[in-house]
Design a protein that fits this description.
With 1146 residues, the chain is mainly alpha-helical. Helix content is 53%, strand content 6%. It has 46 helices and 20 strands. Strands 8-7-11 form a 3-stranded antiparallel β-sheet. Helix 39 packs across helix 41. The longest helix is centred in the middle third of the chain and has 38 residues. It is an enzyme of class 2 (transferase).
Amino acid sequence: MSALRCGRGAAGLRRALWPKGHPCFLAEEGTLGGVWGRKRSLSASACEQDRRKGCGHAELLEVLEARVRQLQAEGTAEEVMVKRVAMAQAPEAGGIWPPRQAPVGAEGAAPVLSSHWVQKLDKDQQLIEKRLQQLEGKLPKIVEKSTWEKRLRMEPRLLSRKLAGQLQQWERKRPQSPWEEQLARLLQEAPKKLSREADEGSESRLEGQRQKLLAFLECCLLTGHLPLAHHVLVAQHSRAPQQQLLTLPMYNTVMLGWARQGSFKELMYVFFMLKDAGLAPDLLSYAAALQCMGRLDQDAGTIRRCLKQMEQDGLSLQGLFSAVPLSTGEREELLRAVRKARPAFSPQPPPPPPPQVNTSPLLQEIYAKDPSVSYPKLHLSLKELQGLFRQQLGVEMATTVTVESVEKAPLLTEEVLQARKTLAALRAEWESVLSLELQETKESEARAAAEGRPSLFPYLCLLSEKELVGLLLQTLQALPSHGESLFFLAHELGVRVLKRKRLRNQVEELEQRYFEYLHLLASDTQIGILKPHPAFTQLQETAAERTLIFESTEVPMLCPPLPWTSPHSGAFLLSPTKMMRSLEGTQQHQLLLERCPPAELHGALDALTQLGNCAWRVNGRVLDLVLDLFRDKGCPRLGVPAPPTEAPRPPEGRQTPKGCLLPEASPADKAEMRRELARRLKVAREMQSLRADALYRLSLAQHLRNHVFWLPHNMDFRGRTYPCSPHFNHLGSDLARALLEFAQGRPLGPHGLDWLKIHLINLTGLKKRESLQTRRDYADAVMEDILDSAERPMTGRKWWMEADEPWQTLACCMEIAQVVHSPDPTTYISHFPVHQDGSCNGLQHYAALGRDSTGATSVNLSPSDLPQDVYSEVAAQVEVFRRQDAKQGVRVAQVLEGFISRKVVKQTVMTVVYGVTRYGGRLQIEKRLRELEDFPQEFVWEASHYLVRQVFNSLQEMFSGTRSIQRWLTESARLISLTGSAVEWITPLGVPIIQPYHRDSKVMIKGGLQSLTFSSSVDTNQKPNTLKQKNGFPPNFIHSLDSTHMMLTALYCYRKGLTFVSVHDCFWTHAADVGVMNQVCREQFVRLHSQPILHDLSRFLIKRFCSDSRTSKSMWVSRLKDTLLSVPPTGTFDLDQVKRSTFFFS
């Protein structure tokens, strides 16, 4: 829907890249021209073929040099600097051009050019001059008024001879026979056919074309081109083959447009076409006709006959006001017309919606009307929040946010300044050329529409030319050097254009509704690839501009997010956001949510709203320290990525050292050098990726450091919640978490300092097996190191750097230092978030589901004086098995003596609950063994096989109930998949879940420049992928349970006035409120698992997959039903013990 998607626009954008006076940036055929031109050849150009032979770079450079000399000979040498050619060379750290430069102008430097290149230079020069003359007004421009508007046809061509005769007769009788009379008679005409019969295949093929045509007509109305919409409708209707594309909503769209203008004759034409197409008018058709009569103040007789015909068609008068979406003004005109015929009529007010009451027993207290409950307020006044709303509105209307980069500023050399000047000149020129090309494209597309074909014309009119050119330049500015799919760019550009146009009219209504919401929060109230030219990419690198551009949805919000009220309404003010994020192209999740009763989603919607309502601010003290390291050489040990200059360099020329090139070098030496080269390149790519991620995060932190901001949330298909803004949030690494703190502070109170100390020691990882009191005492013992870390983080003893989470440890040290130095620690206002982590939370849910006493004790569901460490227990059990095998002479068991530790088995134990297979577990253990310097590396493969087997055996003994539930879930999913369905279930909080795993299908997208073929695993028409369905069900089901527990905790904490956020099974709140949060967390876990979760799941799956009489006799369905009825038995563990367990979350 942009100029990028049409031939003329693409050509214009190509021509815009031909800069004035800088010939070294011109695109040669086969590079830029092949991508941006009107037509794209699938075969390589001559230059492209030469380059593939290895001599293209040199030849292209010689051409550029020859172009410089040619322009010098024409007297334009002042604008062409020799270093422009040098700018096309590759920098030391990789690049596109070879590191070679011939001395321009030196004797003997000019190669002999072939006639092909001479002709091409002349042709390019003429094209440049022509375009420049056109821009500067030296060529006469076409000022003649467009003629396409004169060719628009209003009178329809009817296929029915009877109707065509009536239309001609009534045309001759006007004005004696008014159109209103003819409408009343026409309505009595029975349609030839009330529906079109078509096979399912043809209907599906036509549906896409119908959607495009309807969108074109609606866009014409939106941009004020109603006559054009009418003309295209007439043209399509006049051709019998095309008429099958037309649907009643298309005729109604155009009729409603004429009704708004009071143009009854044109509305009558559409009614003739509607009858000619064999369609029966519906409520919207009658509403358009009556509304038009109201505007024209027509006589009551015609209106009366129209209403009578409507009732004969089985349509109710009341339905005009209750079932037809009309604006207030349109309803008034409609009511005026109706009251002319029936003065006593008064539309009934819409009935009140039925009460939407959430029936979940887990949420009874949340939605009970309790006047004694006082929900928390934000620390900002209503006026401040209204100001923040307007700031955020401006951000989203602009669609992008420009952020100053925190990368070390380059030296402003003459080359950098000249590059920036050149970029500014190029962009100014592109703006002019794009504007001119946009005018030409609109004229061309308008002519296409005037020929009766839907085109891009109305879409190009949605915004002013200046705005559209600005969006195009934004797209080019953000284009990566490796290019981007034209389909993706066109889609993104179209979304921006439509969003800016459509929502501009909704801002006033949004502001009114949002201000009402603020009263509850305020403190003082209740296809193809588009790729930039390598020379342009090099110019950008040389200019080193210090700006980053983000989409508005990629940046935290400057005001509280919109509350979630439905699966598609919430979060950002103007940018549409889905409640449930999903893979591109999947709709099954959204369809399930739409079919779900709204009241059943209230718990999840309100939990997302509550999580997004937490106000944040940047921890500036930590940010300053991180920026100093980042701008220097980084510090990978502390999680600050090093710059690319610190990456291991491949051997020069990406070749092996000379020794390995010698004939006598052995194949083994050559293979080793190839592996070393691959390792270096892999490390360099990883460093570059980490550096870019840190750059985005730190630049956004610097951008927001003096602001209060919010992180809107949505969820994945399992129900797990995530911030919508991807680059800067609390779900990141240790460094990312340390940069954030609550914007709203709370006094520490009597126990807040104790929780800060415990949290600090938890972050260090030093006392994991000790009691809380021991951790507090240890914090007191090292208080000198804590204060030294806070006061001299980079020059002192650097105690904080040895912690498991160093940056969060440092931030906590700084907070404790401020508390200790304050006059009264109990009144100190703390903004610091304190965490409480679940103890292997997946196994906790499994143990609770199976009431497994042994497993429950291992994961701290039972009270104990010291925390239980399931990883150490598994390692101990594996060691028992190893000793037994070593005594029996098993070689690998003997080799492993002294090497089995908690660290070796931890990752595998942690991920078994989430579905890791033995293969995946073996890879995890192999990685840990390779990190052990003393372990004999020749035994790594055999030892990893042995250990993963023993880890699974240990878990089977320790968590027998867990493994039986896991096997039941796996087998159920396997059989469901074999019946041809994807696995579905509903969480205890009422959220419908479906697994999006299907067999791969080949998808081809045809475009004007090229066709793309790719594999898709989300095609719901394909059969389910049985392997992924069965392996994914156990972990996904447990994820849906831990998400339910988190949401329940969030809602009940909010009810108690707490600030609460989470990172899945890690819950955050103020230090003063940790005790209350811990109580709520345990109570809600017990309430959740007091429900018959597995039996409810069994009943749902039987009803969903085994109740269809057509498939009930299938072998797989029969086996599935038997399996689902065999719910694993439970043990004897008492869930109430969880309420007294100190280390359940700690």
